Amino acid sequence: MEQHVTPCEDAPPPLMYRVERPVFDEAYLHTQLLHPRERSPKTIRQRLAQQLHCSSERAKAIALSFLPILTWLPSYPVKEYLFGDLVSGLSTGVMQLPQGLAYAMLAAVPPVYGLYSSFYPVLLYTFFGTSRHISIGTFAVISLMIGGVVVREAPDSMFMIQALNGTATNTTVFIDTEARDARRVHIAVVLTTLVGVIQLVLGLLRFGFVAIYLTEPLVRGFTTAAAVHVFISQLKYLLGIQTPRFSGPLSALHSVTAVFSDITSTNVTTLIVGGVCMVVLYCVKDLNERFKKKLPVPIPGEIIVVMVSTGISYGLSLSENYQVDVVRTIPSGLLPPAIPDFSLLPNLVTDSIAIAVVGFSMGISLAKIFALKHGYSVDGNQELIALGLCNFVSSFFHTFAITCSMSRSLVQESTGGNTQIAGLLASMVVLLVVVAIGFVFQPLPQTALAAIIMVNLLGMFKQFRDIPALWRTSKIELAIWLVAFVASVLLGLDLGLLVALGFAILSVIYRTQSPKSVILGQVLDTGLYCDVDEYEKAAECTGIKIFHSNSSIYFANSDLYLNALKEKTGVDPVHLQAIRKARKRKLKKESAERESQNHKSPQKMSAVVKLDLELGVTHEVVAGGGSQNHLEVQGNGQVAETHTESDSEETRFLEPLCPVHTLILDWTPVNFIDSVGAKAIKLVIKEYAAVDVCVFIAGCSRTLLAELRTLQFFTGVVAPEMVFPTVHDAVLHCRRRTAPPTITAIQ
To answer: In angstroms, rounded to a whole number, what is the distance separating the alpha carbons of residues 159 and 181?
Structure first.
């Protein structure tokens, strides 16, 4: 019985890849195959004319990029988006109120200025921002950085006043809080103006890429350290004790020391109110997280805590009866615009740069997350312009610097927000409170605001979970995280950010100077080449070493590249030259010894030669002191013994110095090369050529080849024929070059 085997229909035949072509080198590619286009370089005048060219389409594109609201507002789907934006705007606005009041305390300014900062910037971002979901306004990290600058420039000691207490000998020292707060507001406003100018200029100069230098581990370590600073700064409000506010290096340690040294004067009522508020807020946040899919909108725990604590404070007169610190005066209405005091600018430049960069990096990172989730794009340069305008314009209306808030942005997005109409409605909620009912929050205990701030830090403290994750994935990124955290905690946020940024740049330099270098081998019957130490099927080509290093070649690592090349291949031209010189010296020494022996016994040599001439035999001295005798059959049948001399005396001694005759440099991962790197490579090629080891280059990109031509790399010992488009091309060329010549029999 015959059995028929049917092929499995589920397994399609493998996709074959067959290419048959000559072996290409760069000389052939550049002159015969590719034919580069001839492009005449443009003059500066032509470039300016192209950039400054104006048309209706160009003007429209510029207007739409500067005012992104024009791209989506005309086609706003009212039926689909309006209800979601309405609910989201109200939810975010209700959350914006207590956070604005609380974060003003971090900025060391009266709480009402937090409300101003929650209105004007949000209104402006609606028109100029490209993100549809982030919530602009006060943020803990930025507020704390502002507070550090403000306290440094206007410390309490500047406003100490001594007052007589009945007699000339008894005096009481107190702080003029009105003058102090007014001075601090001026400093915060000027700082915000400068932050806005820096962001605006960076945006107009298309410097949106600066955020890439603040890598994610750096930002997360920095924000975690900021959370530690914020938590420590709120301890005194939670406990109801009076301690000075510190700034600069070791300010966190000084603050903790001051709190614990005065902890015996804790106001128990203040602690109870703050503790209850923290428990309620934590429970509400936990409920929102557990039932976020069932709840139509999150429970507004913060506004509930604010309203209830305000009511209790007003009903029980906590301020008068229990000495609980409250918000006190909140003026109704908006203040008229005023020009900041620019005489304060010189002392604030460094701080403003740090705040501008941190604020932008926080905003753009969150904006990109939401844009990726909802399928639209954000423009980093326009985001810089938008934040710059929000800070600069709003500073004339007495605000402090802002950025986006993670917690509010999550609420705005999760409650159905689709556009910045939600942000516009949130700003209207804040405006309503400022204009009409701001006085209601005057009895609000400060400990309740401290509780709001502390509970909102839970998300940042969860970033400590990054440490074990980074330990498993990347030790270098873990080092960046830890350096950013420790430096920011100990040195302060401004110096800590500078140290962390410097360390991140050093880590990049370290990676370029510590690349992975391997020797490649060919996978049998393929054109693939892999690390011979890692893959069993990869076998080295006889007499050929293929060197691969995953880094570019420039002044900082060119020496390291060459050292790795010599170490991995085991072929050091200096060492081989030393061996060659030693052999030459040995050859000369042996030749001299033979000549001296010949001079000592001329008669004996003469007799031997005479005897040999009579016998028809010739002798020739060859290297090694021996003689070679060759028998030749004469035409008459006699056997004649002859001796052949070698081509040269060095042939015997100067055999191949090592089994490797060819090196191939795989430049597939090389992105760029500078003049120092090019000179180093040319020098090592020349050194290898002196010891009969050929060097070829493979896998260069066209951009890299253009750089090499600009650097005049293909001169002297280096020619375009030594460069191949792939490693396999180079290997095939080397094999044919070193193959023994074919001997053809002549009939």
So the answer is: 10
Q: How far is CA 296 from the centre of its chain?
A: 39
Sign, CA dihedral 113-115-117-119, equals negative
CA 17, 22, 26: angle at the middle one, nearest 5?
110
Residue 689, number of CB atoms within 10 A of its CB: 14
Q: At 719, give phi and psi (nearest 5°).
A: -130, 155
Maximum Cα interatomic distance, the chain, rounded to a whole number of Å? 149
Question: From CA 597, how far away is CA 43, in angstroms rounded?
Answer: 79
Residue type, 341: D
Classify residue 540 by its DSSP letter.
P
Distance (Å) of CA 459 to CA 223, 282, 357, 465:
10, 12, 22, 11
C-alpha atoms less than 13 angstroms from C-alpha of 548 in its C-beta half-sphere:
15
Backbone φ and ψ for 283, nearest 5 degrees, come out as: -65, -40
Q: What distance in Å separates the CA atoms of residue 253 and residue 676, rounded to the nearest whole number?
A: 48
Q: pLDDT (tens digit, 9 = 90+) per residue, 347-364?
A: 899 899 989 988 998 888
Angstrom distance (rounded) from CA 95 to CA 411: 9
C-alpha to C-alpha distance for 153 and 350, rounded to whole angstroms: 13
* Mean pLDDT rounded to a whole number for the chain: 84
CA distance 393 to 398: 10
Q: Please name which of 331, 350, 281, 309 lies closest in space to residue 95, comparing C-alpha atoms.
A: 281
Q: Which residues contact 275 (CB under 8 A, 6 or more apart)?
A: 238, 451
Beta bridge partners of 723: 697
Residues 6+ apart with CB under 8 A from 278: 451, 454, 455
Amino acid, single-letter form, for residue 656? P
Tokens of 475: 């030790």
How does pLDDT run across 561-606, given as a tens digit for each residue?
A: 999 999 999 998 888 888 888 888 888 888 888 777 776 655 555 5
Q: Confirm if 131 and 69 have CB atoms less than 8 A apart.
A: no
Rounded to an integer, what distance in angstroms lies between the CA atom of residue 234 and that of residue 106? Answer: 8
> Helix (H, G, I), strand (E, B), or coil: what is residue 7?
coil
